[in-house]
Amino acid sequence: MTDAAFLSDRGNVFDEYFKEQGYVCNQIGPHAFGSPFCQPCKLLIIPSGFADPKYYKVLPALDRNVEKIREFIENGGVLLVFGAMLTDYTYDWLPMNLSYHMHFKNKNVRLVKPDSPAALLKEPGMLDCDGYFTESDGDIVMELEDGKPVVVEKSIGKGYVIASALHEYPDRRFLDWACGKDRVTRTI
């Protein structure tokens, strides 16, 4: 059974990490994304740099599956999306309002919404960030010292969108929540 799915045309950078944590993370290629060949999962991961074709060629798959992504989340799926890695980017394919600005820096990140499931993503402190969010209709969970949001979450239906500009793997506590036994696998 697949706990998480990683949308990628360049291999699965999460595979070993998930195995070490006791979970299964399978790669979904952009051509299979949203098709009957796309295995159900609990957590869908969209990688850092997904919008820049020099890193990944997955943006067309996201754009053509807007409705399926929304249904996955509304039905209880968790979508973890990272920074677009473009100077400025609007996540038009998400069922929420979200815009991003790229700015690499190791910064002090503070937690502002400890009761959010997204607070489990990473312990606050000095973390690598690839940018910050400039606009969102979700809840700010973590921010930089100057108040710029780096982790945002929005509950939609029975599921969640977790947007992260942190350039870090999610902590085990987050995986236990997002991929736990109580969560049901959903199709995309």
UniProtKB/TrEMBL annotation:
<protein>
    <submittedName>
        <fullName>Uncharacterized protein</fullName>
    </submittedName>
</protein>
<dbReference type="InterPro" id="IPR029062">
    <property type="entry name" value="Class_I_gatase-like"/>
</dbReference>
